[in-house]
Amino acid sequence: MAQIIMFSLFGKAFIPKKLIPEVSKQFKRAGYSEVPYSLFGILFYATLIITYFIYFPTIYTLISNSNKIIFFIVTFATWAIAPLILSAISILGIYFYIDLKIFNRTKKMEDKLPDYLNMVATNLKGGMSFERSLWGAIKDEYGLLSTEIAIVAKKVMTGSNTAQALEQFSKKYPSPIIRRSINLIVSEIESGGKISEIIDRVVEDLKKTRMLKQEMAASTLTYVIFITVIVIVISPVLFSLSFQLLNVMLGFMKNFSNVDASSMLSFNAETGIKPEQFKQFSFFAISIISIFASAIISIIQKGDVRSGIKYMPMFWLSSIGVYILAYEILRSAFSGLIT
Hints:
The protein is an all-alpha fold. It contains 13 helices and no strands.
């Protein structure tokens, strides 16, 4: 317990005071009631441990016989720069995870918003006041949206204005859909108009927007299939074929004993292409292609790259699997030519 408190205090001191309110706001958007400062403290000590294992087995053995000035400069640079780089990578990873979680929570609320507002409009038409209509529409089936509206209800019960509480909710998440919808309802409340009519219009617009997105996704299905086939099938097979052709050429060159192979092609030279290097390059290139292809497909279908994060492992595993399968098939097919 004492160690957790120590990590928490150190983690809180590690974050600049000006950034603490924004960090706290981001974690609350992601569903965390408090900022896990102990995690930041643990990550800092983890970076020091990783730096230790980087420095002593490798860098220290290389500079141990150097003069004192070089030894001091390299040691200081390693222990100063390496923890900063590792800390930056860790913080970016946490930020990416939190941002992705906020995005997923926001999308869930956007999906449930039309149904919830439709229920609110039904309650209004049944004779309930606006506040009671909001609270009465809270159902478990609306998930996170119900939780957030319940928070709005608590604020109203403790003396806050309904419009202000709704505006705070709309600004909590980075969602233009929620913000515009709430702003229209709030403006109608302040003007004293018929709230049920404006809510019906908002619901109708939200449903039209959803249908348009579905139609756009359907219209781009051909491009998605085309990109998927290229990334998962064609690209790995071509890389595997290129690898086998490289082996065939090297096999032919070795069989021409009366010809200097190095004078024809530089595959066996120190600066030339080696089969293992090409194989490593193939894995790296296929991985990059599959990751960016899943991002492109996500942008085409959903309009946001974060929606395609869940597809990246599937694309990567599929393309690597096809590459390995094509490699084994082509190796057996070309084995006679290589030998």
